[in-house]
Design goal:
The chain is α/β, with parallel strands linked by helices and 71 residues long. The chain contains two helices and three strands; from the N terminus they run βαβαβ. The protein is globular.
Length: 71
C-alpha cells in the first residue's frame, strides 16, 4: 500500500494532486491512502468537504483520504 502524510496540508490541495498522480500511476495495483494534517480545523473541514464532493463526482474511485487536526 502507498501511504502519504501531508503535514500542514490546509485544505488538501497538495494532497489532492498527489492522490491524482498516485492513482494514475499505481491504481488499481496499489491501495493509496492519504492523511492530511493541519493545526487549523476550519481548513481541514473545508478540505474534507471538497474531498467528499470529489469522490461523488468520480463515483468513489481513487483511494482514501483522512483529515486530522494536529498541533
Amino acid at each position: 500500500p502507498t501511504r502519504v502524510l501531508d503535514v500542514a496540508g490546509g485544505t488538501g490541495d497538495t494532497a489532492f494532486r498527489i492522490r491524482e498522480l498516485a492513482c494514475e500511476l499505481l491504481a488499481p495495483h496499489d491501495d493509496v491512502s492519504i492523511t492530511v494534517c493541519d493545526i487549523n480545523a476550519d481548513m481541514l473541514a473545508e478540505g474534507k468537504q471538497r474531498y467528499e464532493a470529489l469522490l461523488q463526482s468520480e463515483a468513489g474511485n481513487g483511494g482514501r483520504a483522512s483529515f486530522a487536526t494536529c498541533g
